[in-house]
């Protein structure tokens, strides 16, 4: 994306008579650099004017579009120069009408396309508030494409206005004081849409006054104008319970617009993605993920993102084999009650989340008050495509005379699918509970996702 380098130290205004007033711009040693000059005139004489703009003595090229407000007699041009030499450059122009009052703002950017920075556009976006109908909300819609940078310029005749760019724009010039002539402002904003999308730009000024407001979108040195759509490629088949080979997410055209895009894969059937999301950026324009299906059959893999990029068509993936064995683990405390961890650190779930049974860490209850209940949610649970065996494994121990009740609660948080009552269990004991077909159906109806384990202790 085009990136700001420098601007003239202050905007120039109100040079009387013909001649060649100058301003100084320091151009940095950056790749694919370019200088842009906004040149405006207040045509007090009411006549047209001629102008020639140079940068360090090198003639600049005038953008073909112009903006004219004939009522308040304002006129605006945009000039540009690719690949200027590095260092301090005099920005000079010639005004042929002695009554004209010029405005000049100059700025340099890098990572700019060197032959067609305007992406074929031939007209400036502009807005005006003429003398008869003044207002204080200059705004324009600039045709642009993600990966480009929208630049604007505001000029007005009132010298004492307070002007502020929209909060999403980065201000580069704000020169409100030029006695008898007015002032100007300049800002920029990253474009954020598919090709041809309008990027809104606006300023606020302290009271209604005539103005002439212009803008244009400039594209990066890569020349594509930026990404407009996501792409997805990958395997067409695999086995149940086995991670697929890599799926690849990319973009149709470089670059990815700053600050980047977060992409989330989805499946029409049960399964999991690793990682769950991938990130693309101007420097990383592709990423990979794998898919592990839980059940056999056709799966439709789709993408969504937090951007305006168009999502790709669904990708078909066929999983073969039987039903996968999937293990879900406790991960999120819902309610703790009077239960605490054995060492007073971490969550209840962190002490129960074990691949191999381990009695070194555990949770405990003081049974104060009685019927002390805690509830901990399983993580990563998905609704299976096929109802099959489900086993709940847990381990208990209690003091003499202490009873415990273990319950499996569905994702709705209220439906109790199964209850197992335990009298005193004075040694560490593991229990494996196989759910019946009826319990599986009840869990499916009330929600696999979000299901949790509830344990109540009572003396």
Topology:
Blueprint: E1 3-7, E2 12-13, E3 22-27, E4 34-43, E5 53-55, E6 58-59, E7 61-62, E8 67-69, E9 74-82, E10 87-93, E11 100-110, E12 125-129, E13 139-144, E14 149-156, E15 163-165, E16 170-175, E17 183-190, E18 197-205, E19 211-218, E20 230-233, E21 237-239, E22 247-251, E23 261-267, E24 271-274, E25 278-280, E26 287-293, E27 297-305, E28 315-320, E29 329-335, E30 339-341, H1 348-352, E31 363-365, E32 372-379, E33 391-396, E34 403-409, E35 416-422, E36 429-434, H2 437-446, E37 452-458
Parallel strand pairs: 21-28
Antiparallel strand pairs: 1-11, 2-11, 3-10, 4-9, 4-11, 5-6, 5-10, 7-9, 8-9, 12-19, 13-18, 14-17, 14-19, 15-18, 16-17, 20-22, 22-26, 23-25, 23-27, 24-26, 27-28, 29-32, 30-31, 32-37, 33-36, 34-35, 34-37
